Amino acid sequence: MATTAAMTTTVDDSARDRAQAAAERAAIDASCRGPVLFFAASAIVWLLVGSLLALLASVKLHTPYLLTASPELTFGRVRMAHLQAMGYGWLSLATVAALLWQMCRLSRAELVYPKLLILAGVLWNIGQFLAVVGIILGDATSVEWLEAPAYAPPFFIAAVGIISAWTVAVFRRRREPHVYVTQWYILGAIFWFPWLYLVAQFMIFWSTAVGVVQPIVNWWFGHNVIGLWFTPVAVGTAYYLIPKIIGRPIHSYYLSIIGFWSLALFYSWAGMHHLIGGPIPGWLSSASTVGSMMMLIPVLAVAINHHMTMRGHFHRLRYSPALRFTVFGAIAYTLVSVQGSFEALKDFSEVTHFTHYTVAHAHLGVYGFVTMIMFGLFYYMVPRLTGREWASSTLIRVHFWCAAVGIAIYFAGLSIGGWWQGRMLNNPNVPFAHIVNYTLPYLFSRSIAGTLMTAGHLAFTVLFVMNVAGWGQQRAGGPTFFVEPPSASLSGPQRIGPRDL
Amino acid sequence: MDRGMVIFLGALFTFSSSWLGLIVFPFQQLGHEQPYQKSDSDDPYPQPLQGIAVAGKRVYQANGCMYCHSQQVRSQRFGNWWDDNGEERTGADIKRSWGLRRTVSRDYLYDNPTMLGTMRTGPDLANIGVRNPSAMWHHTHLLNPRSANPWSIMPSFPYLYKREKIVGDRSEKALLLGREWTVHPGYRWRPTPQQWDELLRERGATILRQVLASAPTETFDLTTADGQKRLLDFWLTTPEEDYQIVPTADGEALVAYLLALRKAEVPLPEAKE
């Protein structure tokens, strides 16, 4: 409640308090600058690598003769390398950048020994480079989400150990007594991910989980890495950015509590729906179907909370790039989660399992939701770290529309194609050749979508490089808008909240 | 209590519940399964992979075959469809002859990693060794899947094969494919019209003799463009005289692994519907 109180009394704050708060924020941002920008920059490098691999894999599925003679670029390896680059490169490194900066800002505490975090970033990138190159050269494990060859995980484990420890250290040195909901999500994520990763590595590769226990561990990990690592940080980021940008507190403190704890409880139970119909005990997939349906609670709690916070402020999506990306992501979160709950029902899964429908769903999650929110955060955070505004609002517009239209085509094409693919697979009278031919136009639509998304990523990269290289205007007052808002009251959070939490 | 501690304990508790329920408990439940032996004279089932099939599994892993091919046969009652009379039916996997029965946890006792798969861009492979036991078919299909199924979108795997000059007799392992598949391994080769004119000028008589050796009833009027094209079409389906394509060690190993995939073959009591 403290935040609500703090924000409603803002009008009375004196100019001196504001100056003090601004100086504090500047000191916090200065302490974060090195490591957070390092994580952000390397995340973008992997985003580009992952996009090119994705595009290649996508085109190969409808044009099988493309580069077919090269072992390094065969479909299976490129697809695994794409997942590695996006999952552990872009998504994870962006997540780390997001959680470090927000934890410092919300705790009102500087980062201590930032150089060690840069070391963590270097270690993670070494592991990531070894993993992607190893997969391309033929060392992949073929365990989905854990494809990295055995020499990469030690780097990830060391890096994530440092990151988690530093995040906790910042939290313990907090000057702000109120713990905001974003901090809960971050604390959850930095605790869950190392545990998940260690358990999965240990049980699958170092110990004796053979037979069907292995896919069970595999999907417990694969589902949770999304639900308990990417999702909490992305949802937490939306919880941070939406109130910050529109300048009003979150609608309901209690809904955010319900959302957090029900996510923690139910998401971790949902993973076995990936094995419905498979050779595992029936009660396991039933338990996960229950967990998946119960996920409606946290999802709707977050959806209502975000929507009620935004109510009356939707017109601001015209102006603020960060807000537009974030709200797009928040809406996609609701859609993809509700869809996911129903996909876990047996009748639904009977059709969509083993088809491109699942691929569309996965991308609505990791792209439409997580990636879009991370873009939103970058547009908000990077100028505060570099002290420079974005050099071109046209490029931001290009980025937004390429990404938004790209994921929309991606999702629509593979959902429709995948649904009918599943219906035909269930009918033994339909020859397999017919199903393959039927999916081709939809696979082609994905390549178009992927080209758009990649073009958006290039625009984003250009903007980021220009910003870091000092090509933008010095930050003074308002942020970069798509179009200038009509009145000065809309420009920037500095004018709205004194604390600028 | 400190707010951080509340979050820590809560995160620990919720997470432990799923870890105990979804991981530790199934680990205990499934950890003691034994191979099945109907009578003492029978071999226990399943058997671990043997010989080069073990290396073949590595090739399967390295090239990500699992990302398009599942290895599980689902129940007769799974997945509905409607037949021509509008009647509701279930169980496509077995009717597609992907296995004689559904697969159960015991089928995977020795699998490591267990590549159940999540995608059926291609057909299920749990039982491919029973369904298609011909090593030669697998080799020709792997070199270029279009040589077996023109509609296939599977990649070619020419790097599992080598094209070599024949010294002495043709190897027994040499792939039985026409030159259109072997001149440029992994691709489908066809000379350009200029190249074909040149070939006809230089070696026309030899080519005609080669084709007639394998298709003695055919006649070709080489004075017409149509006759020349027909000759080319025939010639492309005849094997190269001086070169052969043989599997590399990886290619042999992969096919041995595929032939060892015979999961839904031996009846198991728990797999009854």
Report on this structure.
Chain A is 73% helix and 0% strand. Chain A is mainly alpha-helical. The two termini of chain A are 14 Å apart. The longest helix of chain A has 48 residues, at 15-62. Residues 1-8 and 488-501 of chain A have low confidence and may be disordered. Among the domains of chain A are: 19-178, Four Helix Bundle (Hemerythrin (Met), subunit A), CATH 1.20.120; 353-484, no CATH class. Chain B folds into two domains: 52-165 and 250-271, Cytochrome c-like domain (Cytochrome Bc1 Complex, Chain D, domain 2, Orthogonal Bundle); 180-238, no CATH class. Helices cover 39% and strands 6% of the residues of chain B. Chain B contains nine helices and four strands, in the order ααββαααβαααβα. In chain B, a hairpin with a 5-residue loop joins β1 and β2. In chain B, α2 (52-62) crosses α9, α5 crosses α9 and α7 crosses α8. Chains A and B meet through α2, α3, α5, α6 and α7 of A and α1, α2 and β1 of B.
CATH topology (level 3) name of the domain at 19-178 in chain A:
Four Helix Bundle (Hemerythrin (Met), subunit A)
Largest sheet of chain A at a glance? none
> Average pLDDT value of chain B?
93
Structural class of chain A: mainly alpha
What is the CATH architecture descriptor of the largest domain in chain B? Orthogonal Bundle
Number of strands of chain A: 0
3D shape of chain A = globular
Instruction: State the separation between the terminal residues of chain A, measured CA to CA.
Output: 14 Å
